[in-house]
TrEMBL record:
Transmembrane segments: 58-77, 141-162, 174-192, 198-219, 226-245, 251-269, 296-318, 389-408, 503-525, 559-578, 584-602, 628-648
Protein name, per record: RHOMBOID-like protein
Organism domain of life: Eukaryota
Membrane topology: Multi-pass membrane protein
Predominant cellular place of this UniProt entry's protein: membrane
Lineage: Eukaryota, Viridiplantae, Streptophyta, Embryophyta, Tracheophyta
Function: Serine protease involved in intramembrane proteolysis.
PANTHER family cross-referenced by the UniProt entry: RHOMBOID-LIKE PROTEIN 3, RHOMBOID-RELATED
Amino acid sequence: MAIGDDDLENRMSAKHHHHRGIGSKGGDRTGFGPPPRPAPLVYGGDDAFSSSPQWTSWLVPMFVIANVIVFVVTMFVNNCPAHSHGPNRRCVATFLGRLSFEPLRNNPLFGPSSRTLEKLGSLEWDKVVEKHEGWRLLTCIWLHAGVIHLAANMLSLVFIGIRLEQQFGFVRIGVIYLLSGIGGSLLSSLFIRNSISVGASGALFGLLGSMLSELLTNWTIYSNKIAALLTLLFVIAINLAIGILPHVDNFAHVGGFLTGFLLGFVLLARPQFKWLARENMPQGRRLTSKYKPYQYLLWLLSLALLVLGFVMALVLLFKGEDGNDHCRWCRYLRCIPTSRWKPNATKHHRGIGSRGGDQDLLGPPPRPVVPLVYADFGDDALSPQWTSWLVPLFVVANVIVFFVVMFVNNCPKNSKSLGPDQHCVARFLGRFSFQQLRDNPLFGPSSLTLEKLGSLDWYRVVEKHQAWRLLTCIWLHAGVIHLATNMLSIVFIGTRLEQQFGFVRIGVIYLMSGIGGSILSSLFIRHSISVGASGALFGLLGSMLSELLTNWTIYSNKIAALLTLLFVILINMAIGILPHVDNFTHVGGFLTGFLLGFVLLARPQIKWLAKEHMPQDRRLTKYKPYQYILWLLSMALLVLGYSSWWRWCCYSKEKTGMITATGVATCVVFLPQNGVVMAFDAIQEIV
């Protein structure tokens, strides 16, 4: 999960409905439009779409249910309480009994031990080749390492798979899913021998690959094909780039993607448009072929490559060949070596890793910041540890607010007044049923409901002085997918930060960053409403970066930690430049959290911690001089930022003359968030 791919921040527009993550069709205030799709599955125009058969999606939901059931069975077999002994082996969520999770330091994804996964069918080279357990190539794609791992994969499957199944039917999509999963397992087992692997990421990448080949093989019948191709390539590149992080099995991703890409040419070719309209053509004009010549050529070539690839992979695998002997550079697809991590140093999984050879331990996934240990003092020098309760409380609060929003939305009542074509989704939920997917594809309420309950709207904030919307908007979410993505991110990032720095500081960073993101969004986007917590989440990411910088001298492996964190931030920022995603909220939250990190997360220097063992005549300051400088500078920037926005908000354009040239320079130098806007207005006034 590029912390992500999956973190969406949704914008609902008053005119053309620009969203943080989703968009809606021209001018309808009551609905959300579909998110940007790699290629609209229509022939030329909407009128031709009716000729393409539509299926009801049932296989993808069945896959989701099957994965959830398998995970519950895995946790039942794991039975953490039965083998947890000693103070350091306490299970997590013990109220679940047999279903409780392994300790977080063993499996931070809230799941079972690796021994349980091995027992139930995880992928392991030794068992597949030496013990001839080839069935593990398939069973491993139904196992998951934890709740977070499962939720991320199932959200991706729902978001990608349902639309594909509706267009192409359950047979073809089912074949692509299963064969892509096996293809990913084959490539992974050819190159990685010292790890176990679980997860459906190979199958999911296969669906992505089939989307790309489907666009290419049906190229002539699409409109906006270049934009669709670039968007899809961008999404694929980001997800593959995440795979080069430590502890992520990118070979499963690449193998699944290549298999799905070839299967798309074989299974997803569409008839040419004239063939569909042949009944309306003159009788003397006959079409010689249902498909175009290049489609037949791609079909034959892809089928040959698939058969050849699977045969060669199986032969090499069961002969015991090591793929690294035939491809020296391929190891860089799995991980970029650093001083902290060597690709062959430890075991790793698809998405999770295990520590130094202990089969019973699942190690932590890649963290943006190195372990919070002082370089010369070890674990005993760690700062005080707090119990994380605020972050779970934030999650519960967001879920409760979403239920309230859906209760107020009352889709069945509103859909009756809008006409017979307005059918709610999941109507068995009653008042909690969702808006139509064409209006809101994230399974949520209408934009009118969100406006009523406190979404961010420039007009209401500035003209009607409802500044409280800067805060309330970060508690609202546009749908179940939006909510789940943000809550998984806050659990993954916020819990560790709160354990290290306490609830007060992390709570301040979360709330202030959310407001900072709302401020920047309202400065640049006036014709839309905004909901979501991504500004606050980017604030936590920004605080992690500034915490690393301000405590630079007390960290080991600091360069590797910095590069990893910058890589994660850049990937998430890059997602924000996609259509319908409000990146101003992301940038505003990130800048606010970055400054707050210098103010709130500075650590005492190591010698201060050992001052009791030093001579009495040697006095030390608690912090280093550069930490004080960064503290003062960041505090000044924060105060200037918020006060400048308030001044800009309160004064009308007739009063912009009050902003002097000195004020312009101050805004530009000290506040990138809104200095550009204020400088532009002031320069116009001066000129």
